[in-house]
Amino acid sequence: MQVQSYERSLQRSHASLTRDDRPRVFSLAGREWDLLDEVFAPVYSPSTEAAIGFLGLAGGPADAPRGSFLEIGCGSGVVAVLSALAGCRRVVAADISRPAVRNAALNAARHGVRARLDAVHSDLFSGLPGERFDTVFWSSNYVRAPDTYTYGSIHEAAYVDPGYRTHRRFLAQSTDAVTGNGRVLLHFSDRGDVDRLHEIAAECGRTLRTVASELLVEGEYSSDLVEHMLLEVTVASG
After folding, report:
1. 2-235 has which CATH code?
2. pTM of the prediction?
3. Which sequence spans correspond to the domains of the chain?
């Protein structure tokens, strides 16, 4: 399907970085946010807003995660900051992109939660050895690129995952990063290969359960309807 085309996603990545009207500050969830160069821009995609809704961060603290919260692939830090504002006692915003780490820290300071939010440079869990959280969340780069694709920029890593290698590592490692009653939550979409994701989960001994889903217009670059879904990752029984 064209909507699943990795070339299309790479074009969107390039356009989002280079367009003349790319903002330095953007509005989302009733707040203003700083946006640095080389960092994923939520204004051109519905994914960040969908994540906010899935996690209950739009409806107020009563519905939001509690305890400790880890966001993988934090980008500009919107979800992580909102989680801190909603009452999470400790939040870690992790990203493989150093500009994204700086951006998340900047927005944590902007919204007064820097004391409870750590922005960490990490390739998935590599920068957090042995740590466990009540909630682990990743809004993933769900479009699958060919196994042989090599990123042209760190920004492309927010859009595509060659061979779903990063998804495989996340599924295998994430359940070791939660507390006894913790939850691993993965934000995915049918712009990605849902069937292949479930196959990889099974190969890793994991089960995926759909917690919530929503049809959304893909974003500024397309009027296609895309299904976004929140999946809970658990260790398969037996």
Report:
1. 3.40.50.150
2. 0.96
3. 2-235
